[in-house]
């Protein structure tokens, strides 16, 4: 495993080139992304930040193949996704991308373990038990696996959602405001986990957040403003992120 963690450091997990996304037509058209080129290294935790309306969610949706683009390219682990059909995209998202959303989206009738394994089951794939064990241990979910979502705290539910996102060993995990529904303590636990999934399990995480403290858990922050790349910060602190955002008028 340590070899895997050190190997991934220089590979590109996700790359966008000259990405353009336009909503609407004519006078009311909005260029939500206006030529964004950015690369995300494998084995790193990157946060996407910027003022409200700067294009963060749009960028995430285009990178993850959840939305079509109007120009440019997106590659996930070397696969160009903008030219894929719906079926191929669905398969790519299912097999190679993990998602963590603000709403935990767990099925209430299933146990935590069944929620974690559901995607694999639907895809007809067997879980790698050793990998599952590692994820469960890193997430501290061992004694919660038989519980239903209503028997879990918000933080625990989000950790189950993180396990679900990681269980298929995706090329990348996209997290959209993963701490938006959590108090600060549970939020810190989830962020700690996302960081550990990168450092200890060699995973790649790209997170959209409004919160400079959340962004400070990342290895790197990518800043957007008005649909453009507006800078980046390596080894961010909450203060350095906050002052960069102030600079952008957020
Ligand atoms: N479905 C849509 N139809 C029309 N315009 C849209 C749509 N989605 C987003 N936009 C516009 O595109 C721009 C970028 O929106 P986006 O949601 O990506 O920004 P954001 O940085 O994620 O914002 P926030 O921080 O407020 O969530 C904004 O001007 C927004 O109003």
Description:
It is a single chain. The chain is α/β, with parallel strands linked by helices. It has a single domain, classed as Rossmann fold (3-Layer(aba) Sandwich), CATH 3.40.50.300. Helices cover 36% and strands 25% of the residues. It has nine helices and ten strands. It has helices at 2-7, 56-63, 86-96, 112-122, 129-139, 154-166, 184-199, 212-215, 238-247; strands at 12-23, 30-41, 45-49, 71-76, 79-80, 97-100, 172-176, 205-208, 220-225, 228-234. Helix 4 (112-122) packs parallel to helix 6 (154-166), helix 5 packs antiparallel against helix 6 and helix 6 (154-166) runs parallel beside helix 7. Residues 1-9 have low confidence and may be disordered. The site of adenosine-5'-triphosphate (ATP) has 13 residues, from strand 2 and helix 2. Adenosine-5'-triphosphate is lined by residues 23-24, 30, 32, 50, 52-58, 210.
């Amino acid at each position: 495993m340590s070899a895997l963690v050190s190997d991934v450091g220089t590979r590109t997990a996700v790359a966008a080139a000259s990405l353009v996304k336009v909503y609407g037509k004519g006078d009311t058209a909005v260029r939500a992304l206006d030529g964004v080129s950015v690369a995300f290294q494998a084995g790193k935790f990157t946060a996407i930040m910027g003022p409200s309306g700067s294009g963060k969610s749009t960028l995430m949706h285009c990178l993850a193949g959840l939305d079509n683009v109007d120009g440019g390219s997106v590659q996930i682990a070397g696969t160009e996704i903008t030219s894929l059909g719906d079926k191929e995209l669905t398969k790519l998202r299912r097999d190679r991308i993990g998602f963590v959303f603000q709403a935990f989206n767990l099925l209430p009738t299933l146990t935590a373990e069944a929620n974690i394994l559901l995607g694999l089951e639907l895809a007809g794939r067997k879980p790698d038990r050793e990998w599952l064990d590692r994820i469960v241990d890193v997430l501290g979910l061992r004694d919660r696996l038989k519980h239903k979502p209503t028997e879990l705290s918000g933080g625990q539910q989000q950790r189950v959602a993180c396990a679900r996102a990681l269980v298929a060993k995706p090329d990348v995990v996209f997290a959209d405001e993963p701490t938006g529904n959590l108090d600060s303590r549970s939020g810190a636990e989830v962020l700690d986990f996302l960081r550990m999934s990168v450092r200890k399990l060699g995973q790649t995480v790209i997170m959209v957040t409004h919160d400079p403290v959340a962004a400070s858990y990342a290895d790197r922050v990518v800043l957007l403003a008005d649909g453009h790349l507006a800078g980046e910060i390596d080894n961010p602190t909450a203060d350095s992120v906050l002052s960069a955002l102030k600079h952008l008028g957020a």
